[in-house]
Specification:
By secondary structure, the protein is of the alpha+beta class. It folds into two domains: 171 residues, no CATH class; 110 residues, no CATH class. It is built from ten helices and eleven strands. Helix 8 packs antiparallel against helix 9. It starts with a strand and ends with a helix.
């Protein structure tokens, strides 16, 4: 979740934009306008020194400044108007603004006309994100301003402290109540009350009762013997197709012209014995998953190509043909007969 918040100090007329793209400290950045109308930023991913750029009208070339310029152009906001409202004075005083976001305390510090974000760990170790403070980001001017604002025992303060005890103390005040959603009739994001809705499937007197269809026996979530046997057949099919496919394609030695015919004989024999599956046959369910009706000759079958992946460690996926039979055609025709 991306959030952008404008922070500032009324006394020194200092404003900046704190941008957050995630929960970590590396996902936060701060943007502001220098006294010479240059859009500057401080973040972990930048390398250009904002202290040097603040003396000119230049702006760093990074994704944050580009995103800000695109936002201004898409919202039809004049860049001159924006810079005049957000411009930082050359003699602006040092500013420290504390922002509490869940269990994270983020400090927005302005030191010598350069904004930066400062965070403190549970052990009271500070980190500054400004590129100009990379070599001494734990004892730079931004950190010193934040420590003066917190005081000698500030990391234990319940308002902006970072120790586990200080974070746990106001946790009940920061915790938001869970949102109250409506029933599924008015809100599709929740399944509460789904079993109370009427079914949209046409039912006939000869069909099974909905209670019997919904009743499910207890299972141990382990595959049955029949499923294990089917899996072994498909694994064997993929293995043999991979092993015999080059010979069947005509790459057999010249002194064995009947090799392809023997391969086809072996495959047909194994298909007849049920050891492997014929991938040319369409895979279609014998019963409807909605009403439980058996498939008959009058049901229309629509074939579609598909890939079947097995548990074989080296054999590739098999090209199969899956089919779906349309039982709703029969239902629709029976309804018309009843209406006439």
């Amino acid at each position: 979740m991306v959030t952008a918040r404008v922070i500032g100090d009324k006394g020194s007329r200092s404003r900046a934009i704190v941008l957050r793209q995630g929960p970590g400290k590396r996902d936060a950045s701060i943007l502001w306008v220098s006294s010479r109308d240059g859009i500057l930023r401080s973040c972990f991913y930048g390398h250009e020194n904002a202290l040097f750029l603040s003396a000119s009208s230049r702006s760093p070339t990074c994704r944050h400044t580009m995103a800000l310029r695109q936002a201004l152009s898409s919202s039809d906001v004049s860049a001159g108007t924006f810079c005049s409202r957000m411009r930082l004075r050359a003699d602006a005083a040092d500013v420290s603004v504390c922002e509490d976001d869940g269990s994270t305390v983020l400090w927005s510090i302005s030191y010598h006309s350069v904004f930066s974000l400062v965070t403190f760990s549970d052990a009271n170790v500070a980190t500054c994100v400004a590129p100009c403070c990379r070599r001494f980001r734990r004892r730079c001017g931004h950190v010193r301003v934040a420590r003066e604002r917190r005081g000698p025992d500030g990391f234990n303060d319940v308002n902006f402290g970072t120790t586990p005890a200080a974070v746990k103390a106001p946790l009940h005040a920061r915790r938001r109540p869970p949102p109250a959603y409506d029933k599924v009739i008015h809100n599709e994001e929740e399944y509460e009350g789904l079993e109370k809705l009427a079914s949209d499937t046409m039912r006939f007197p000869q069909d099974s009762a909905p209670v019997d269809l919904a009743a499910r026996p207890s299972r141990n979530l382990l595959p049955s013997t029949v499923k294990l046997g089917q899996g072994a057949v498909w694994n064997r099919t993929a293995d043999l197709r991979q092993a015999l496919k080059p010979q069947a394609a005509g790459t057999a030695p010249a002194d064995r012209p009947d090799h392809a015919r023997k391969v086809q004989l072996i495959l047909s024999s194994m298909i007849g014995a049920g050891a492997i599956r014929d991938t040319r046959d369409a895979l279609v369910e014998h019963c409807c998953g909605s009403c439980g009706q058996n498939r008959e000759e009058r049901h229309k079958v629509v074939a579609e190509p598909g890939l079947l992946t097995t548990h074989h460690p080296t054999a590739p996926a098999l090209k199969v043909c899956r089919s779906a039979w349309l039982s709703w055609l029969l239902v629709f025709s029976s309804v018309l007969d009843q209406a006439t």
